[in-house]
Structure formats: structure tokens, C-alpha cells
Amino acid sequence: MNDLSMMVTVIGRAKLPSLLTVLKNNKVEVNLIALGRGTAGDEVMDVLGIENAEKAVCCSIVTKNTWKTVRKDLQQRLQIDAPGVGIAFKIPLSSIGGKRELMFLTQDQDFVRGEEESMKNTERELLLVISNEGYNDLVMDAARDAGARGGTIIHARGTGMHQAERFFGVSLASEKDILFIVARTAEKNKIMQAIMEKAGVNTPAQSIVFSLPVTDTAGLTLVDAYAKEEAEQAEEDAEKTEKTETPAT
């Protein structure tokens, strides 16, 4: 979406406060933090000089210019390029559901909204839905009603949620669930709109949704076949109904 990206930083939990300081200094106020664990074996960890595998995963929305300054600070202040410290990368966004939601996620970053963009030839997109903890059924029901097949949930804690009242007129809880939904690009807007209407900021779920391009997939062959079968059946039923309702001459 123009020059917006989701930045993902994986770093040792002990360095999380330093990471949040770097982000705040660069006007990245809203972040989602989940805890994880590295998978490297003891021998590899010894070679890399890693003391433990306890990790923090931090997701943030950044502009192109913000990414440049944050990356520089991560390299200089956190020595993120040193072996075993961590990694940061960014993924381009294709859309964010709602103008207020966009302004909340970017806040004081230097960003001017442009036209929505999508990577060419992407048949699917990844929808990320950030909602209050415990409202996954409400979010998923809204998504399914619009054509989504299923999703995956992880728990996270948000920072900068106290500033939501400035944009929405309501406060947001810090404890969050993140729902990952892979959807067809052609169905993306319909699903996002349904989530915003039925589980958006003005509902108990207080959801924010945005999308990222998916360049390729595996494991969705049966899902596609089922969707095709459903579409063909719906078309067949519509034809039967039309013939039944057409008066004889």
C-alpha cells in the first residue's frame, strides 16, 4: 500500500525494552508483541554465542523512510547484525481496512495515503486481523460469511493502545489475538469489509484488519476444488430456480 510495510523483528527477550525504545524514538508507537522460542540446537547456539533461545516477535507498521531510520538504529544501538542478536525484515502491505485504522497504525510517521497497491499475479492475500482477546469466533464468523475458509490464531500484547481514543474515541485493550486468514485476492475486500462491519472497532472485538500479498501457496488444492464445486452447485440451483419461476407460455 504505497510505501507502507509490516516490519517483523525477532530478538532476544532481554533486548525487547531496548527495541521498544528504538521504535518509540522513531515514532513507531503501535506494536504487537508475541513470545517465541528459537529452534537452534545447543551446539549451534554455542557457535553463534547465543545464551538462550527465548525470543520476542514484534510486528509494526512502518513507512519506507521510517524503516530506513529504524534499521540504522537497530544496527548501531542494538548491534542486530551481530551473530545471535536477532533479525528484522519488512513485508509490503496491500491494504488497511479503514482510514482511522490507518492513521492509528502509522500515527506520527511521515505518511501520505496513496492509491491501494497489490503485487501483480498474486491470487491470494494474507489478512491479519488484530482483535481483543477472546473474540475470535465473532471475527471468524464475519469472515466466513464473506467467503473465508478458516484461520490461525496467535496471542500477542499491544503497545500504544492507550492512544486509540485519539482516533476512535474509545480505548483498546492491550491483550490481543492475531488471526491469520489466507483468502483469494478477488474476495479480500469483501472479507475485510465484513470484518470491519461485524467485528470492527465499534464492536466488542475492536478489530483492525490489513492485508499482505501472498506470492505462492501449497495445501489449498482441496479447498479450491471444494469452492469450485460449491460455485457450480450454486449456479445449477439458480438455473433450476429460474426455470421454476418462469411462467409457461
Name a few traits of the molecule:
Alpha-Beta Plaits; alpha+beta; 9 strands; 37% helix; nine-stranded antiparallel beta sheet; 249 residues
Strand-helix topology:
Blueprint: E1 5-12, H1 16-25, E2 31-37, H2 42-48, E3 54-62, H3 64-77, E4 86-92, E5 95-96, H4 99-106, E6 124-132, H5 136-145, E7 152-159, H6 165-168, E8 175-184, H7 185-199, E9 208-214, H8 221-245
Antiparallel strand pairs: 1-3, 1-4, 2-3, 2-7, 5-9, 6-8, 6-9, 7-8
Computed structural class: alpha+beta
Name of the CATH first level of the largest domain: Alpha Beta
The termini sit apart by 55 Å
Give the tally of β-strands.
Answer: 9
User: CATH topology of the largest domain, which one?
Assistant: Alpha-Beta Plaits
What can be said about the biggest beta sheet?
Answer: 9 strands, antiparallel
Write out the strand line-up for the largest beta sheet, numbering strands in chain order.
4-1-3-2-7-8-6-9-5
